[in-house]
Amino acid sequence: MYDVSTRKRALSLVAQGRSLNSVSRETGISRAAIRAWQDRLEPLPRIAPPDPGPPADERAYAYPLGLYLGDGCISAHPRSGYYLRIACADAWPGLIQQCREAITKVRPGIGVYALQREGCTMVTSYSPQWPRLFPQHGPGRKHDRTIALEPWQQAIVDAHPWEFIRGLIHSDGCRITNWTTRLVAGERKRYEYPRYFFTNRSGDIMRLFTQALDHVGVEWKQANACNISVARKASVALMDTRVGPKH
């Protein structure tokens, strides 16, 4: 897209008697564009894509929303439209498939494909509507800017909190086995217990995660500035039932 001043400069060279070929070589602008400007100087206004409305499947949307906040991005196509990309570790092929299936349910009929990168797979989809469906898109890193859900997104998360939690855990979380020692009848024994961790540098995203945990009755603690821990036995069991392991 060339601005009006660039167009006027090219046309002024043509007005001097220069050929379209020579003006094109000097300016780097195609002959077809210069010829078109002779009929219309002002650029045509950009037509905004139609409002996509709510996700086709709101339950399915809550899962890639969590994945996007953790490991997703949206980038503009050089000509038009946008790419949604979610990075998924190759170690979890089931997660990659779940991500692809969920995005397909959110926007039926669009293409969703896997682009291999070193150590990960980028689940990728093209649509002009992705910034409207993921309005947290913006310049810079997520932890350097405000991340807040739109009211319609919050309503979906409130209705389907476990799908949202699963997406966040599958992107920036893990289930591990911790261990400690205890004295039992005078003998020190090793004791193992499972726990979940969620790690993110954005305080806003951490709050969205803990609010969802509060909503479903999962007890949590903030281990440090970037880590949320779920270690209570009943809460871990609930997470195991509703979130499940990466696979």
Give a structural overview:
This protein has 247 residues and is α+β, with helices and mostly antiparallel strands. Helix content is 42%, strand content 24%. A hairpin with a 2-residue loop joins strand 5 (173-184) and strand 6 (187-199). Helix 8 crosses helix 9 (203-216). The mean pLDDT is 91.
The CATH homologous superfamily of the domain at 58-145 is termed: Homing endonucleases
- Assess the beta-strand content as a share of residues: 15-25%
Rg (CA only): 25 Å
Number of strands: 8
Query: What is the top-level CATH class of the domain at 58-145?
Result: Alpha Beta
Within the CATH hierarchy, at the fold level, what is the topology of the domain at 58-145?
Answer: Endonuclease I-creI
Question: Any low-confidence stretches, pLDDT <50, length ≥5?
Answer: none
Average of per-residue pLDDT values: 91
Count of helical regions = 10
Helix content estimate: 40-55%
Give the N-to-C terminal Cα separation: 45 Å
In the sheet with the most strands, the strands line up as 1-2-4-3
Helix-strand string: HHHHEEHEEHHHEEHEEH
Just name the CATH architecture of the domain at 58-145.
Answer: Roll
Instruction: Report the major sheet.
Output: 4 strands, antiparallel
- Helix-strand makeup class: alpha+beta
Q: What oligomeric state is this?
A: single chain
Estimate the global geometry from the Cα principal axes.
elongated
How do the strands and helices of this protein lay out in sequence?
Blueprint: H1 4-15, H2 20-27, H3 31-37, H4 58-71, E1 72-76, E2 82-89, H5 93-106, E3 112-117, E4 120-127, H6 130-133, H7 151-159, H8 161-172, E5 173-184, E6 187-199, H9 203-216, E7 221-224, E8 227-230, H10 233-242
Helix pairs in contact: 4-5, 4-7, 4-8, 7-8, 8-9
